[in-house]
Amino acid sequence: MQINIVAKKTLADGVIYLPYWLLSYEALVALFVDRSDQNAPNQAMLMSREVNNAKTAYLTAGDHKELLADFTIDSPVPFAVDALLASLEAINNEMVPGAKAGSEKMGEFNGKLSRMIARLENKISDRRLGFLFQGGADTLHFDWLSHLAAAIFGSTAEKGAGGVKIIDFSEVPSDVLPLIVSLVARLAFAIQQWTPSDLRHPVALLCDEAHLYIPNRSDADASDDISISIFERIAKEGRKYGVSLLVISQRPSEVNKTMLSQCSNFISMRLTNADDQAVIKKLLPDSLGSFSDILPTLDTGEALIVGDASLLPSRIRVDEPLVKPNGGTVDFWTDWQGPVGERRIDTAILNWRKQSI
Fold first, then answer.
1. How far apart (Å, rounded) are the C-alpha atoms in residues 81 and 74?
2. Any idea what the Cα angle at residue 247 is, between residues 241 and 250, rounded to 5°?
3. Most exposed among 6, 119, 150, 197, judged by the fewest C-beta atoms under 10 Å?
4. pLDDT of residue 142
5. Buried b (16+ CB within 10 A) or exposed e, 102-126
6. What are the residue boundaries of the Helicase HerA central domain, all occurrences included (predicted)?
C-alpha cells in the first residue's frame, strides 16, 4: 500500500489516506502550533476546544448522539477541517462591545491565532500532505475508519484482507514522517487494546529504517517525542494486547534505547561502526559479550542470532529471497557495462517534478 495523493485512487487501489481527524490532540498541536510563538498556549487551548466542538457537531448532525457522552478529543471522530478553520478565523477576528455604547474593541484572542491559521492553511494546500487533507468526502464517512482498519490490519480470514501488508512511506515528507508512522502504530495498538480478549488476533509491526522515526530521545525534537512515546508504549505494553514490534535499522546506535531493551531476540548482521557494535554488546548477557567481536567479520547474508528464539547464540546464514526486492544493492559491475536507457535523465526530471513514477 502506498501513502500519497493519487487522483481518483482509493483503498481498493492500494492507496490509503490517513486523514487529519485520526491525529491525537498532541499530534494536532505539534503539526499546527508553533511552540516558539508567545501565543502557543492559547492556540493549543483553542485548538482543543474547537476540535471538540467540530466533532460534537459531526456526531449530532449524523445522528450518533449515543457517543456524545463518552467521546474525547482523541476519539477517532471525523470533522470538517474547513469548519474548524472558519471557527478559528472568527475567534481571531472577533470584536466585542466596548465600554462606550455603540463602540467595539478587540476580543480576548483577536489576532493571537494568526500564525496558527497561516500554518493550517499552508498544510491544507501542501500537496505533499494530500494523504492528510485531500482524501475527499469518503474519508469523512462515519464507517470509513472500519474500511481503513480492515485494509491495513485485517487478517486473511476477513474479506478483502491479506496476511502481510507493506505500507510505503517514501513519499511522506521527512518533517512529518515520525507523526504519520506513529499514527499507523497508534491505530494498531488502539484496535488491539479495544478488541475483547477473546476476539484478538496478533499483529506484528515491522519497523524498517526505525532510526528515522524512533530515534534516541537525546536526538529527538518535539514532534519526534510523540512518535517515540507511542512506540515505547507498544514495546512495554503491546505483548498483552497481541501487538509485537520488529525493529529494523542499519544504525542501532541511533535507535531509541528503550525500544532495544524491550526486544527479546536480536539478529545482527555485519556491523563495522564501533558505536553500533557497542550497542549490540551492551544488549548481550555478560557471559556472551565476546560474541560481538565477530560482528565486523560477518559475510554478506550471515548474522548473529541471540535470544529466546535460539537455545544458544548462533551464527547463521540467511537464505536469499526467491523474489529479490527492488531495494537490493545494484549490480554495479554489470550495470556499468550495460547500455544506457534513452531519455533516462529527461524521464527522471519529469517524474521529479510530478513527484510520481
1. 16
2. 175
3. 197
4. 92
5. eeeeeeebeebbbbbbebbeebbee
6. 15-186
Q: Write out pLDDT tens, residues 319-340.
A: 988 887 776 677 788 888 888 8
Helix (H) or strand (E) holding 274: helix 274-283
What does the pLDDT look like over 24-68, one tens digit per residue? 999 999 888 988 889 999 999 999 999 999 999 999 998 888 898
Chain center to CA of 175: 11
Query: What does each C-alpha distance from 235 to 163, 196, 230, 231, 356 come to in angstroms?
Result: 22, 20, 9, 6, 35
Helix/strand/coil percentages in the chain, nearest 5? 50, 10, 40
Alpha-carbon distance 186 to 145, whole Å? Answer: 13
pTM attached to this predicted model = 0.83
Q: How far does CA 10 lie from the centroid of its chain?
A: 19
154, 160 Cβ separation under 8 angstroms: yes
Rounded distance between C-alpha atoms, residue 86 and residue 124, angstroms? 13
Backbone dihedral angles phi then psi of residue 20, each to the nearest 5 degrees: -55, -30
CA 195 to chain centre: 21
CA distance 331 to 340: 14
Structure confidence at residue 217 as a pLDDT band (50, 70, 90): confident
Q: Which residues sit opposite 305 in a β-bridge? A: 267, 314
As a whole number of Å, the CA-based R_g of the chain is 24
SS3 state of residue 213: coil
* pLDDT recorded at residue 161: 52
Write out the DSSP string of 283-342.
HS-GGGGGGGGGGGGPPTTEEEEEETT-SS-EEEEPPPPSS--TTSPP-HHHHHHSPPPT
pLDDT at 100: 77
Q: What is the percentage of the chain residues whose pLDDT exceeds 70?
A: 92
Taking the CA atoms of residue 98, residue 100, residue 101 and residue 107 in that order, the dihedral angle to the nearest 10 degrees is: 0
Q: Cα–Cα distance between 21 and 194 in angstroms, integer?
A: 19
Q: Which amino acid is at 57?
A: A
